[in-house]
Fold this protein.
Amino acid sequence: MKVLFYYPSNKQSNSLETLIYELSLKSMEVSLLTTCVKGPFHKALEEKGIRTFTSIISNRFSIVYYLRQFFFLINFCKKYQIDIVCSHLQHVNIISVFAQFFTRTRFIIFRHHFKFNVFSNDFKLSANRTEVLFDKIINMLAKEIIVPSSGVYNGMIDFEKVNKSKLKILPYIYNFDEYAKPDEQIVSQIKELYPCKLRLLMCSRLIPFKRHYLVFPIINKLVKQGYDIKLMVLDEGPEKENLENYINENELQKHISMLGFRSDFINYMAASDLLIHPSLTEASNSSVKEMGLLKKTVAVCSKVGDFDDYIINEANGFLLNPLDTEIHLEELLVKIYSNNYLLIEMGENLHDTVLNTFNRSPKIINRYLELFKTNNQI
Protein backbone atom coordinates (compact mmCIF):
# COMPACT_ATOMS: atom_id res chain seq x y z
CA MET A 1 0.00 0.00 0.00
CA LYS A 2 1.32 3.44 -0.97
CA VAL A 3 0.53 6.17 1.55
CA LEU A 4 1.36 9.84 0.96
CA PHE A 5 1.50 12.36 3.81
CA TYR A 6 0.61 15.80 2.47
CA TYR A 7 1.84 18.67 4.65
CA PRO A 8 2.47 22.43 4.29
CA SER A 9 5.57 22.81 6.51
CA ASN A 10 9.22 21.74 6.64
CA LYS A 11 9.47 22.06 10.43
CA GLN A 12 9.89 18.89 12.39
CA SER A 13 6.86 17.36 14.07
CA ASN A 14 7.74 14.55 16.44
CA SER A 15 4.25 13.07 16.40
CA LEU A 16 3.90 13.10 12.62
CA GLU A 17 7.45 11.89 12.07
CA THR A 18 6.87 9.05 14.53
CA LEU A 19 3.65 8.01 12.80
CA ILE A 20 5.24 8.03 9.34
CA TYR A 21 8.24 6.01 10.48
CA GLU A 22 6.17 3.47 12.42
CA LEU A 23 3.92 2.92 9.39
CA SER A 24 6.98 2.43 7.18
CA LEU A 25 7.96 -0.45 9.46
CA LYS A 26 4.62 -2.13 8.72
CA SER A 27 5.48 -2.90 5.08
CA MET A 28 3.85 0.30 3.84
CA GLU A 29 5.44 2.47 1.17
CA VAL A 30 5.18 5.85 2.90
CA SER A 31 6.32 9.20 1.48
CA LEU A 32 5.99 12.92 2.24
CA LEU A 33 4.90 15.77 -0.04
CA THR A 34 5.07 19.37 1.18
CA THR A 35 4.10 22.68 -0.38
CA CYS A 36 7.37 24.28 0.76
CA VAL A 37 11.12 23.83 0.33
CA LYS A 38 12.86 20.95 2.03
CA GLY A 39 13.92 21.48 5.62
CA PRO A 40 14.59 19.66 8.91
CA PHE A 41 11.44 17.55 8.61
CA HIS A 42 12.45 16.20 5.20
CA LYS A 43 16.00 15.54 6.38
CA ALA A 44 14.82 13.59 9.43
CA LEU A 45 12.58 11.36 7.30
CA GLU A 46 15.15 10.85 4.56
CA GLU A 47 17.66 9.68 7.16
CA LYS A 48 15.14 6.96 8.01
CA GLY A 49 14.86 5.92 4.36
CA ILE A 50 11.56 7.67 3.63
CA ARG A 51 11.21 9.53 0.33
CA THR A 52 10.20 13.19 0.41
CA PHE A 53 8.93 15.51 -2.32
CA THR A 54 8.07 19.19 -2.65
CA SER A 55 5.65 21.27 -4.70
CA ILE A 56 6.97 24.83 -4.54
CA ILE A 57 4.73 27.40 -6.20
CA SER A 58 4.97 31.18 -5.84
CA ASN A 59 2.11 33.56 -5.01
CA ARG A 60 1.06 31.55 -1.96
CA PHE A 61 -2.61 31.98 -0.97
CA SER A 62 -3.70 33.30 -4.39
CA ILE A 63 -6.35 31.49 -6.44
CA VAL A 64 -3.75 30.64 -9.08
CA TYR A 65 -1.54 29.16 -6.36
CA TYR A 66 -4.28 26.83 -5.13
CA LEU A 67 -5.18 25.77 -8.67
CA ARG A 68 -1.58 24.88 -9.47
CA GLN A 69 -1.22 22.92 -6.23
CA PHE A 70 -4.51 21.20 -7.02
CA PHE A 71 -3.32 19.97 -10.43
CA PHE A 72 0.11 19.05 -9.06
CA LEU A 73 -1.44 16.83 -6.39
CA ILE A 74 -3.75 15.07 -8.84
CA ASN A 75 -0.88 14.35 -11.24
CA PHE A 76 1.39 13.28 -8.39
CA CYS A 77 -1.14 10.72 -7.13
CA LYS A 78 -1.56 9.29 -10.64
CA LYS A 79 2.17 9.24 -11.40
CA TYR A 80 3.16 7.45 -8.19
CA GLN A 81 -0.06 5.38 -7.96
CA ILE A 82 -0.83 6.63 -4.46
CA ASP A 83 -3.47 4.57 -2.65
CA ILE A 84 -4.10 6.93 0.29
CA VAL A 85 -3.35 10.60 0.91
CA CYS A 86 -3.17 11.64 4.56
CA SER A 87 -3.65 15.40 4.36
CA HIS A 88 -2.58 17.42 7.42
CA LEU A 89 -3.49 21.04 8.27
CA GLN A 90 -5.99 23.38 6.71
CA HIS A 91 -3.69 24.83 4.03
CA VAL A 92 -3.37 21.52 2.18
CA ASN A 93 -6.72 20.10 3.31
CA ILE A 94 -8.57 22.62 1.16
CA ILE A 95 -6.56 21.43 -1.86
CA SER A 96 -7.13 17.77 -1.00
CA VAL A 97 -10.93 17.91 -0.68
CA PHE A 98 -11.22 19.16 -4.27
CA ALA A 99 -8.49 16.89 -5.68
CA GLN A 100 -10.20 13.76 -4.32
CA PHE A 101 -12.90 13.98 -6.99
CA PHE A 102 -10.37 13.70 -9.84
CA THR A 103 -8.39 10.63 -8.82
CA ARG A 104 -9.07 7.12 -7.51
CA THR A 105 -6.83 7.85 -4.53
CA ARG A 106 -8.52 7.76 -1.12
CA PHE A 107 -8.14 11.03 0.81
CA ILE A 108 -8.16 11.15 4.62
CA ILE A 109 -8.29 14.64 6.13
CA PHE A 110 -6.50 15.25 9.43
CA ARG A 111 -7.83 18.16 11.48
CA HIS A 112 -5.45 19.68 14.05
CA HIS A 113 -7.35 22.69 15.36
CA PHE A 114 -10.62 23.91 16.76
CA LYS A 115 -11.08 27.68 16.85
CA PHE A 116 -14.62 28.39 17.91
CA ASN A 117 -15.58 30.79 20.67
CA VAL A 118 -17.81 28.52 22.74
CA PHE A 119 -16.76 29.55 26.25
CA SER A 120 -17.18 33.33 26.33
CA ASN A 121 -18.53 36.38 24.54
CA ASP A 122 -15.12 38.03 24.43
CA PHE A 123 -14.85 39.94 21.14
CA LYS A 124 -11.13 39.16 21.03
CA LEU A 125 -11.88 35.50 20.45
CA SER A 126 -13.02 35.64 16.85
CA ALA A 127 -11.53 33.30 14.27
CA ASN A 128 -10.18 34.51 10.94
CA ARG A 129 -13.03 34.66 8.40
CA THR A 130 -11.02 32.94 5.68
CA GLU A 131 -10.11 30.12 8.05
CA VAL A 132 -13.76 29.72 9.04
CA LEU A 133 -14.80 29.57 5.36
CA PHE A 134 -12.10 27.01 4.57
CA ASP A 135 -13.22 24.86 7.50
CA LYS A 136 -16.81 24.90 6.26
CA ILE A 137 -15.75 23.82 2.78
CA ILE A 138 -13.45 21.09 4.11
CA ASN A 139 -16.09 19.80 6.51
CA MET A 140 -18.67 19.66 3.72
CA LEU A 141 -16.51 17.97 1.07
CA ALA A 142 -14.28 15.69 3.14
CA LYS A 143 -15.28 12.03 3.22
CA GLU A 144 -13.17 11.07 6.23
CA ILE A 145 -11.83 13.38 8.94
CA ILE A 146 -9.42 12.29 11.67
CA VAL A 147 -9.14 14.37 14.86
CA PRO A 148 -6.67 13.84 17.74
CA SER A 149 -8.95 14.45 20.70
CA SER A 150 -12.47 14.35 22.08
CA GLY A 151 -12.39 18.15 22.41
CA VAL A 152 -12.05 18.63 18.65
CA TYR A 153 -14.49 15.80 17.93
CA ASN A 154 -17.24 17.18 20.15
CA GLY A 155 -16.63 20.75 19.03
CA MET A 156 -16.97 19.88 15.36
CA ILE A 157 -20.22 18.02 15.99
CA ASP A 158 -21.79 20.50 18.42
CA PHE A 159 -20.72 23.81 16.91
CA GLU A 160 -19.66 23.16 13.32
CA LYS A 161 -22.47 20.65 12.77
CA VAL A 162 -20.23 18.14 10.97
CA ASN A 163 -21.71 14.79 10.00
CA LYS A 164 -20.69 12.46 12.84
CA SER A 165 -20.16 9.55 10.46
CA LYS A 166 -17.21 11.39 8.89
CA LEU A 167 -15.28 11.74 12.13
CA LYS A 168 -12.90 9.44 13.96
CA ILE A 169 -10.60 10.09 16.94
CA LEU A 170 -7.00 8.89 16.64
CA PRO A 171 -4.58 10.29 19.25
CA TYR A 172 -1.10 11.49 18.41
CA ILE A 173 1.85 9.21 19.11
CA TYR A 174 5.38 10.34 19.97
CA ASN A 175 8.91 9.01 20.09
CA PHE A 176 9.92 10.68 23.33
CA ASP A 177 13.43 9.22 23.05
CA GLU A 178 14.15 11.80 20.34
CA TYR A 179 13.30 14.80 22.53
CA ALA A 180 16.20 16.99 23.59
CA LYS A 181 17.26 16.80 27.21
CA PRO A 182 17.66 19.96 29.32
CA ASP A 183 21.13 21.40 29.81
CA GLU A 184 21.41 21.52 33.60
CA GLN A 185 23.95 24.33 33.50
CA ILE A 186 21.67 26.51 31.39
CA VAL A 187 18.68 25.58 33.58
CA SER A 188 20.63 26.80 36.63
CA GLN A 189 21.49 30.03 34.82
CA ILE A 190 17.81 30.63 34.00
CA LYS A 191 16.87 30.14 37.65
CA GLU A 192 19.58 32.59 38.70
CA LEU A 193 18.40 35.10 36.10
CA TYR A 194 14.77 34.86 37.26
CA PRO A 195 15.02 34.21 41.03
CA CYS A 196 11.68 33.92 42.86
CA LYS A 197 9.59 31.66 45.04
CA LEU A 198 7.23 30.59 42.24
CA ARG A 199 8.49 30.56 38.63
CA LEU A 200 5.75 30.26 36.03
CA LEU A 201 5.85 29.61 32.29
CA MET A 202 3.59 30.30 29.32
CA CYS A 203 4.62 28.63 26.08
CA SER A 204 2.20 29.35 23.22
CA ARG A 205 1.57 31.67 20.29
CA LEU A 206 0.76 35.23 21.32
CA ILE A 207 -2.79 35.19 20.01
CA PRO A 208 -6.07 36.04 21.81
CA PHE A 209 -7.25 32.41 22.00
CA LYS A 210 -4.22 31.54 24.18
CA ARG A 211 -5.40 34.20 26.68
CA HIS A 212 -2.17 35.79 27.87
CA TYR A 213 -4.30 38.89 28.39
CA LEU A 214 -6.15 36.98 31.10
CA VAL A 215 -3.02 35.84 32.96
CA PHE A 216 -1.06 39.10 33.03
CA PRO A 217 -3.58 40.97 35.28
CA ILE A 218 -3.49 38.07 37.75
CA ILE A 219 0.29 38.29 37.96
CA ASN A 220 0.00 42.06 38.35
CA LYS A 221 -2.49 41.71 41.21
CA LEU A 222 -0.46 39.09 43.08
CA VAL A 223 2.82 41.00 42.66
CA LYS A 224 1.19 44.14 44.05
CA GLN A 225 0.07 42.04 47.03
CA GLY A 226 3.66 41.02 47.72
CA TYR A 227 3.87 37.59 46.13
CA ASP A 228 7.34 36.71 44.84
CA ILE A 229 6.27 35.43 41.42
CA LYS A 230 7.85 35.60 37.97
CA LEU A 231 6.34 34.63 34.62
CA MET A 232 8.45 33.64 31.61
CA VAL A 233 6.61 33.96 28.27
CA LEU A 234 7.88 32.09 25.21
CA ASP A 235 6.96 32.45 21.52
CA GLU A 236 5.82 35.26 19.23
CA GLY A 237 2.54 36.46 17.74
CA PRO A 238 0.30 39.41 16.86
CA GLU A 239 -0.55 40.15 20.52
CA LYS A 240 3.09 40.85 21.40
CA GLU A 241 2.83 44.66 21.30
CA ASN A 242 -0.33 44.75 23.42
CA LEU A 243 1.20 42.46 26.01
CA GLU A 244 4.44 44.43 26.16
CA ASN A 245 2.46 47.64 26.59
CA TYR A 246 0.63 46.09 29.55
CA ILE A 247 3.94 45.12 31.16
CA ASN A 248 5.34 48.63 30.74
CA GLU A 249 2.18 50.42 31.89
CA ASN A 250 2.05 48.32 35.07
CA GLU A 251 5.81 48.30 35.70
CA LEU A 252 6.03 44.52 35.57
CA GLN A 253 9.38 44.28 33.76
CA LYS A 254 10.95 42.45 36.71
CA HIS A 255 8.08 40.00 36.97
CA ILE A 256 6.99 39.18 33.40
CA SER A 257 9.68 38.43 30.79
CA MET A 258 8.80 38.23 27.10
CA LEU A 259 11.46 35.85 25.75
CA GLY A 260 10.22 35.33 22.20
CA PHE A 261 10.60 32.11 20.23
CA ARG A 262 13.24 29.84 21.76
CA SER A 263 14.57 26.66 20.18
CA ASP A 264 15.89 25.69 23.64
CA PHE A 265 12.42 25.94 25.22
CA ILE A 266 13.07 22.66 27.04
CA ASN A 267 15.53 24.46 29.36
CA TYR A 268 12.90 27.03 30.32
CA MET A 269 10.40 24.27 30.99
CA ALA A 270 12.90 22.54 33.24
CA ALA A 271 13.53 25.82 35.11
CA SER A 272 9.83 26.50 35.73
CA ASP A 273 7.57 25.26 38.51
CA LEU A 274 4.30 25.28 36.58
CA LEU A 275 3.09 25.74 33.01
CA ILE A 276 0.05 28.03 32.77
CA HIS A 277 -1.94 27.26 29.63
CA PRO A 278 -5.50 28.70 29.69
CA SER A 279 -5.89 28.29 25.93
CA LEU A 280 -9.36 27.82 24.45
CA THR A 281 -8.09 26.45 21.14
CA GLU A 282 -6.26 23.14 21.13
CA ALA A 283 -6.18 19.81 19.39
CA SER A 284 -3.56 17.91 21.40
CA ASN A 285 -1.01 20.26 22.93
CA SER A 286 2.66 19.20 22.84
CA SER A 287 3.98 21.61 25.48
CA VAL A 288 1.85 19.96 28.16
CA LYS A 289 3.28 16.56 27.27
CA GLU A 290 6.82 17.97 27.24
CA MET A 291 6.32 19.35 30.75
CA GLY A 292 5.20 15.88 31.79
CA LEU A 293 8.38 14.35 30.39
CA LEU A 294 10.34 16.71 32.66
CA LYS A 295 8.22 15.66 35.66
CA LYS A 296 6.61 19.08 35.80
CA THR A 297 2.91 19.78 35.92
CA VAL A 298 0.46 22.14 34.26
CA ALA A 299 -2.69 24.24 34.63
CA VAL A 300 -4.99 23.90 31.60
CA CYS A 301 -8.67 24.38 30.80
CA SER A 302 -11.12 21.51 30.88
CA LYS A 303 -13.26 20.77 27.81
CA VAL A 304 -10.38 21.92 25.57
CA GLY A 305 -8.45 19.60 23.25
CA ASP A 306 -7.58 16.29 24.85
CA PHE A 307 -6.80 17.61 28.33
CA ASP A 308 -9.82 15.87 29.88
CA ASP A 309 -8.62 12.61 28.32
CA TYR A 310 -5.47 12.39 30.45
CA ILE A 311 -5.26 15.27 32.95
CA ILE A 312 -6.76 14.32 36.32
CA ASN A 313 -7.46 17.42 38.38
CA GLU A 314 -5.09 17.81 41.34
CA ALA A 315 -3.60 14.35 40.65
CA ASN A 316 -1.29 14.99 37.69
CA GLY A 317 -2.31 18.56 36.80
CA PHE A 318 -4.89 21.28 37.29
CA LEU A 319 -8.06 21.58 35.22
CA LEU A 320 -9.37 25.16 35.16
CA ASN A 321 -12.95 26.14 34.42
CA PRO A 322 -12.91 27.76 30.95
CA LEU A 323 -15.82 30.06 31.88
CA ASP A 324 -14.30 31.83 34.89
CA THR A 325 -10.65 30.93 34.49
CA GLU A 326 -9.38 34.14 36.13
CA ILE A 327 -10.93 33.29 39.50
CA HIS A 328 -9.77 29.68 39.47
CA LEU A 329 -6.25 30.50 38.30
CA GLU A 330 -5.73 33.19 40.93
CA GLU A 331 -6.96 30.84 43.67
CA LEU A 332 -4.66 28.12 42.36
CA LEU A 333 -1.55 30.31 42.33
CA VAL A 334 -2.23 31.49 45.87
CA LYS A 335 -2.69 27.88 46.98
CA ILE A 336 0.48 26.46 45.46
CA TYR A 337 2.57 29.51 46.40
CA SER A 338 2.78 28.24 49.98
CA ASN A 339 2.46 24.56 49.08
CA ASN A 340 4.52 24.15 45.92
CA TYR A 341 5.77 20.79 47.18
CA LEU A 342 2.44 19.53 45.81
CA LEU A 343 3.75 20.15 42.30
CA ILE A 344 6.53 17.57 42.67
CA GLU A 345 4.27 14.55 43.10
CA MET A 346 1.87 15.82 40.44
CA GLY A 347 4.78 16.20 38.00
CA GLU A 348 5.80 12.61 38.65
CA ASN A 349 2.25 11.47 37.98
CA LEU A 350 1.97 13.47 34.75
CA HIS A 351 5.26 11.99 33.59
CA ASP A 352 3.91 8.45 34.00
CA THR A 353 0.60 9.33 32.36
CA VAL A 354 2.22 10.89 29.29
CA LEU A 355 4.57 7.96 28.74
CA ASN A 356 1.85 5.37 29.18
CA THR A 357 -0.61 7.21 26.92
CA PHE A 358 1.39 8.63 24.02
CA ASN A 359 4.82 7.01 23.68
CA ARG A 360 4.77 4.99 20.42
CA SER A 361 1.72 3.07 21.51
CA PRO A 362 1.31 -0.17 19.49
CA LYS A 363 -2.41 0.09 20.21
CA ILE A 364 -2.66 3.43 18.43
CA ILE A 365 -0.48 2.23 15.53
CA ASN A 366 -2.84 -0.72 15.04
CA ARG A 367 -5.78 1.68 14.95
CA TYR A 368 -4.11 3.57 12.09
CA LEU A 369 -3.50 0.30 10.28
CA GLU A 370 -7.16 -0.61 10.66
CA LEU A 371 -8.12 2.82 9.33
CA PHE A 372 -6.13 2.26 6.16
CA LYS A 373 -7.46 -1.26 5.66
CA THR A 374 -11.10 -0.26 6.16
CA ASN A 375 -12.51 2.20 3.67
CA ASN A 376 -15.27 4.10 5.45
CA GLN A 377 -15.83 6.80 2.86
CA ILE A 378 -19.41 8.02 2.71
